[in-house]
Amino acid sequence: MRILLISVAALTLAAWAAEVSPGNGKLYIGGRPGQILIIDEASGKVIGDIKTKTGIPDDLNLSEDHKRFYFMNSLFEDIEVADIANRQVIDTFRLSEGNKKVRIRSFEVDPSNSFMVILSKSATKQPDRWEIGPPTLQQYDLKTHKVIRTIPWPDGDEREFAGIKFSPDGKLMYLFGPDIIIYDTKEFKQVDKWELSRPIEDGFGRINLGSIDDSNEEPGYLTGLFQVQDPVANRRIMGVARVNLTGKSIDFFALGPAIGVSFALAPGRKFGYGLHSEVGRYEFWSFDLANRKLDRRLEFPGRPRMSIKTSSNGKVLYIYNAGNTIDLYDAATFQYMRTITLDTDTTTGLYVLP
Amino acid sequence: MKHLTSINSKAERIEKQMAGEVVALQQGPPQQPPPQPHIPLGCTLIFSPGWEADSSGGTAGLCQPVERDLYDCHTGCFWPAQVPDQLNHAPDWTAKCAAAQKDWRKIDLVFP
Known about the structure:
Radius of gyration of chain A: 22 Å
Shape of chain A: globular
Number of strands of chain B: 0
Order of helices and strands of chain B: HHH
Largest sheet of chain A: 5 strands, antiparallel
Shape of chain B: elongated
Order of helices and strands of chain A: HEEEEEEEEEEEEEEEEEEEEEEEEEEEEE
Number of helices of chain B: 3
Structural class of chain A: mainly beta
Helix content of chain B: 10-25%
Distance between the termini of chain B: 51 Å
Oligomer: heterodimer
Strand content of chain A: over 45%
Number of helices of chain A: 1
Structural class of chain B: mainly alpha
CATH topology of the domain at 36-112 in chain B: Quinohemoprotein amine dehydrogenase
CATH architecture of the domain at 36-112 in chain B: Irregular
Helix content of chain A: under 10%
CATH superfamily of the domain at 36-112 in chain B: Quinohemoprotein amine dehydrogenase, gamma subunit structural domain
């Protein structure tokens, strides 16, 4: 009996020792009621936090130099700037004033951290009514805390939502829509237009970019999944696309019939991972980007509302969102490893930094 | 029983369309899609706090833990739910509750 117990203990220890390490980075994720948690990746322990000043964090964004976080609060009214090294909020501001409430829908900070472009909508309280303003795109100076200018919508076509990116040198701003509108960042005038609404090849439908991840990408590139109409077979097909914003080109390959899958790019950009979720059915997908093909897919006991991120060394997958847990899965086998349980429900995306 | 009589050509076409085989507890013709549940948009259309269904009419698609739905109905998913108006009138109603599954008893009572 003793020999048996010793053998079992030895096997357990061996299994623990053989468990894949996620790396030695740090995880950052926003949580209720007002904090950004800092988790040691190797041990899975919370090692600190950044206390927010305006409540529940939402829409967490990492600066281009990886030194700051920018985020909104859950009331969509305040923006906070956090210094990652000092673990402190260093600035907050809002656009609301007097009887005018300005709700921020999205924002993007320029690579030099000097200004941000904010998409917002206002509601002004009048004696007998609320006046709802149009969706507005504005350049906001982070040092003087002043709106520098209102950026005109392309062709006067107001948009309720807008995806924005800057070029690596900060000289251009890309406004995503059916086409990509390119502005210079001195005067914010349109200087170019990338007509993605047109097929990029003869006999090919229009490319619709879906889930995109640039966290492990080179500056100026985006990698993600896309869907396109196959006019011959009259069906939607999906694939992986790498978008070169500066060169205005797309490198892509098709995978098969279209299905809803999220996407996370692994460090090294040789693999990508995704999640397919239906009610009661959840699948891991992996994409072999080097050999331009679907690698594997496997059904697993997931949960509704999942997000996926790769660990700092790409060997572990983090499953999080809508709850106070982060589940760890082995990226090579999709086998469940363990769960990090937090004292707070998470409210933002997960960032993995060295 | 037949209470209605068709009196124009369109009504006759409808009558012909309806005159198929009577299918009782059998499965319908295979080409017909299964009937979909009628789910009202969000919880607020039914005044029954706690009532909730996912997009398929079941509960398997709700958040897990299910307590988390209380938060994300109105902040993450913007699913109309019977919760306080956090944006305008009760911004701090969950300020004492970090994890819904563990601390839901600490959520504030908010009266209109």
